[in-house]
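anyone seen this seq b4? input:
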Amino acid sequence: MQITDPAVEKLKEILAEEKKGSCLRIFMQAGCCGSSLAMDIADKPEKGDVEIAKDGLKVYVAKDAEAQLANASLDCDKAGGIIIKGLPKAGGCGGGCDCGH
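predicted toks r here
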């Protein structure tokens, strides 16, 4: 996974407001349609996480999420939010629930 320069700057800004040592962690989260990627600010990486570093920023990726992020990039959207670009297309639920997929 690549991290763009705008994402580095935004994440440094966000993490500066958090508890010292906090980090961005990307992981798989169970949902009604199976697992999907999620991001959160964590106090520390978890055992087995893979570290991705750029310009002094460290992002941690759960081992089970690493393969999905191989060709992806962490970037900023037009509103300044952190997004993941370049993910494989998901099939969705097919309308079997209320999640909107």
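The chain is about 10% helix and 40% strand. The mean pLDDT is 86. kinda curious what u guys think
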